[in-house]
Write a structure and sequence with these properties.
The complex is a heterodimer. Chain A is mainly beta. In chain A, 0% of the residues lie in helices and 54% in strands. Chain A contains no helices and 11 strands. In chain A, strands 2, 4, 5, 6, 9, 10 and 11 form a 7-stranded mixed sheet that branches. A 4-stranded antiparallel sheet of chain A has the order 1-3-8-7, with no helix packed on it. Chain A is globular, with a radius of gyration of 13 Å. Chain B has strands spanning 3-7, 10-14, 19-26, 30-38, 45-50, 56-59, 62-66, 70-75, 84-92, 98-100, 104-109. In chain B, 0% of the residues lie in helices and 60% in strands. In chain B, strand 7 (62-66) and strand 8 form a beta hairpin. Chain B has no helices and 11 strands. By secondary structure, chain B is mainly β. The chains are: A mainly beta, B mainly beta.
Chain lengths: 111, 110
Amino acid sequence: DSGVTQTPKHLITATGQRVTLRCSPRSGDLSVYWYQQSLDQGLQFLIQYYNGEERAKGNILERFSAQQFPDLHSELNLSSLELGDSALYFCASSLSGNEQFFGPGTRLTVL
Amino acid sequence: EDQVTQSPEALRLQEGESSSLNCSYTVSGLRGLFWYRQDPGKGPEFLFTLYSAGEEKEKERLKATLTKKESFLHITAPKPEDSATYLCAVQAMRSYKYIFGTGTRLKVLA
């Protein structure tokens, strides 16, 4: 158990819909990272927040947005969902950035 | 363009048969190179961070090394429980972005 929690574990929705994925980092970690993992593209870095501020941005689509709240938990919002958005979404947290602790992931299925 | 390439894609070893996994990278300034292990259906688990060429780190049967263009993960006398996908990632200096390779799927046979 990494200490990072993600909810929900599974999510099934339809094209065009909007969903919110939630992540609680390990106690004391200030950074939160979001990743998308699909079979054909591997692990893709989406975005990083550090203590509430956006620190780095990867291949995150404009339909996706994230934020980190004052209690340091984070949410990833995915809108206008497409079939290709079906994937495992991981959240990770770290204190220093040297070592990331990954959560168990949310499996999103878009039908 | 920042890029990470891992080879081989898959590797089957007999228990006790040592080998190496390769991670070649191109990045505009290396902030750090990371190795992770991922079991099916689970999140990646951190193994090592390397920062500069010539650096080496060891943990049990694993040893990671770094040059200016690539990193190796050496597995000595592997056991079946070492079976997993091993991921390499780099963090770019200026953008702080993380770029992951597609991984090496390792299977160790008893």
